[in-house]
Design brief:
Strand order of the largest sheet: 1-3-2-4
Strand content: 5-15%
Order of helices and strands: HHEEHEHHEHHHHH
Oligomer: single chain
Shape: globular
Number of helices: 10
Number of strands: 4
Number of domains: 1
Low-confidence stretches: 47-51
Mean pLDDT: 82
Helix content: 40-55%
Length: 183
């Protein structure tokens, strides 16, 4: 895919189809080794090897999509992985000077740009991935039922590592027509 454009298939997809496209793209990026799945890290470019910090300065106020193909690898959490794939498809994130300076993206600033998953879905995904810790677990007005909370923690406990847990979350989204469903 060429940088700096909206993916046509993504653009015409329904919201549920967009969530499935995002989940499949994360799985692909994971398989290619482009992302390192790490609890507690939204998006961290400190793991890239093809670009120097000085080189990155030219991307201030530019779309993140223009830099994604150049990044060999970066660390992300579950929500960070969804965010990067959404940016890849929809080209909707400009890099600030602080993003470049820190070589990472702040979840507090960027989370509002994850458009295709509801706040409730993002909360459930994060609870299941972060074991009750993380941004939505402490900074959110979305109230989960006791069952949702305990099912998310149980989901976390089933998978021994971050990568397996994220793959299970993504497969769950794909199998459930674009929705993360806890049983």
């Amino acid at each position: 895919m060429k940088s700096n454009h909206v993916n046509k298939k993504f653009q015409i997809a329904s919201p549920a189809e967009k969530r499935i496209i995002i989940a499949k793209d994360v799985l692909k990026r994971l398989k290619l080794g482009r992302i390192l799945i790490t609890s507690g890290v939204f998006v961290n470019f400190n793991y890239f090897s093809s670009i120097e910090n000085i080189y990155l300065k030219k991307y201030i106020n530019k779309e993140l999509q223009t830099i994604l193909p150049k990044i060999k690898q970066c660390a992300v959490c579950a929500l960070g992985s969804l965010f990067l794939s959404q940016v890849k498809m929809a080209n909707n994130c400009k890099l600030s000077e602080n993003d470049i300076k820190c070589a990472k993206l702040s979840m507090c600033e960027k989370i509002k740009q994850i458009k295709y998953f509801s706040l409730k879905q993002l909360t459930l995904i994060e609870m299941a991935f972060e074991n009750g810790y993380g941004y939505f677990c402490h900074n959110n007005s979305i109230v989960l039922t006791d069952d949702e909370y305990f099912n998310a923690i149980e989901f976390y406990n089933i998978y021994p590592n971050d990568k397996d847990r994220l793959v299970a979350i993504l497969e769950n989204i794909i199998e459930n027509n674009g929705k993360f469903v806890l049983k």
